[in-house]
């Protein structure tokens, strides 16, 4: 983990209230793993008081020689609305990389990726790393869901990698009108993968965990939760372990990526 000043390279609007932020910050990111995150001080010193957590969307440069990182964020609250005003050249303070990311064994052949809404950020980073490391993109499938077409981001980037993309929306404005877990389960039933990796709303991840457990498929999920420190000190991101007597897991240090069965999904 490094605390450092980073320089804004770009801050593009990519959807309604959605931005793609490029930061020049090479220190420490040569070993960044998909699923890890950073904590950004989003406003002037101590305003807001707490840093904001963001999944790493991608590394700028090469994995061995990073020049910076990208994050994907939605301007919803005070801190992210301040971030939406950032222009190239601005200096910001960040901590990272933090947490545990996805772990894909070298002999993994077939991978299914699933994302709901802004959960696409760590999944996009994982997809680029898988393809760069030699995984056959035709053996990767990506399932992307949202409430409407406006919630769907980055599908074309996955297609450009050679990955098959299945899109669903709640309102039918794009792709299939159903939950993303419906075509995911059908694909698992027809051709089980070696691994499923998913990120999105809690309800979606609950369903993915249930589906993969039912079919005996290995699955890793990236949890989205509020964090205050990102380093396990405040205990604000605690989630229960499957055995309540075993206590709690802390998303910022034990995760945010967990294998199904490591946390109680409720």
Plain-language structure description:
The chain is globular, with a radius of gyration of 18 Å. Helix 4 packs parallel to helix 5 (202-215). The longest helix has 14 residues, at 202-215. It has 266 residues and is α/β, with parallel strands linked by helices. The chain has helices spanning 78-83, 120-132, 155-160, 181-190, 202-215, 251-254, and strands at residues 2-15, 18-24, 37-40, 52-61, 66-74, 91-98, 111-116, 140-146, 164-169, 176-177, 195-199, 219-222, 238-240, 248-250, 257-259.
Primary descriptors:
single chain, 266 residues, alpha/beta, seven-stranded mixed β-sheet, six-stranded antiparallel β-barrel, 6 helices, 15 strands, 20% helix, 34% strand, globular
Quick description:
The protein has helices at 78-83, 120-132, 155-160, 181-190, 202-215, 251-254; strands at residues 2-15, 18-24, 37-40, 52-61, 66-74, 91-98, 111-116, 140-146, 164-169, 176-177, 195-199, 219-222, 238-240, 248-250, 257-259. It is an alpha/beta fold.
Tell the overall outline: globular
Structural class by sheet pairing and helices: alpha/beta
Biggest pleated sheet: 7 strands, mixed
Q: In sequence order, what are the helices and strands, one letter per element?
A: EEEEEHEEHEHEEHEHEEEHE
Task: Calculate Rg over CA atoms.
Answer: 18 Å
Side by side, the strands of the main sheet go: 10-9-8-7-11-12-15
Helix amount, in percent?
Answer: 10-25%
Average pLDDT, rounded to a whole number, is 91
**Low-confidence parts lasting 5 or more residues at pLDDT below 50?**
none
């Amino acid at each position: 983990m490094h605390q450092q000043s980073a320089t804004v390279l770009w801050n593009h609007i990519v959807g309604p209230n959605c931005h793609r932020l490029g930061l020049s910050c090479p220190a420490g990111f040569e070993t960044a793993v998909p699923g890890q995150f950073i904590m950004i001080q989003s406003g002037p010193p101590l305003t807001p008081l707490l840093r904001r957590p963001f999944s790493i969307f991608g590394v700028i440069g090469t994995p061995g020689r990073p020049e910076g990182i990208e994050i994907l964020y939605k301007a919803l609250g005070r801190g992210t609305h301040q971030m939406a005003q950032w222009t190239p050249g601005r200096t910001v303070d960040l901590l990272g990389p933090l947490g545990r990311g996805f772990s894909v064994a070298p002999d993994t052949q077939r991978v299914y990726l699933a994302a709901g809404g802004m959960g696409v950020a760590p999944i996009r980073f994982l997809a680029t790393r898988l393809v760069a490391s030699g995984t056959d993109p035709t053996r990767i499938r990506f399932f992307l869901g949202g409430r409407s077409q406006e919630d769907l981001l980055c599908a074309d980037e996955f297609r450009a990698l050679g990955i098959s993309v299945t899109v669903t929306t709640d309102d039918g404005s794009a792709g299939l009108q159903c939950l993303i877990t419906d075509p995911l389960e059908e694909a698992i039933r027809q051709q089980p993968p070696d691994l499923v990796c998913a990120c999105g709303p809690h309800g979606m991840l609950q369903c993915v965990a249930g589906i993969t457990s039912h079919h005996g498929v290995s699955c890793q999920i990236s949890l989205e939760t509020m964090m205050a420190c990102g380093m396990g000190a405040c205990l604000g991101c605690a989630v229960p372990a499957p055995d309540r007597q075993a206590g709690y897991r802390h998303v910022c240090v034990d995760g945010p990526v967990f294998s199904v069965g490591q946390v109680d999904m409720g």
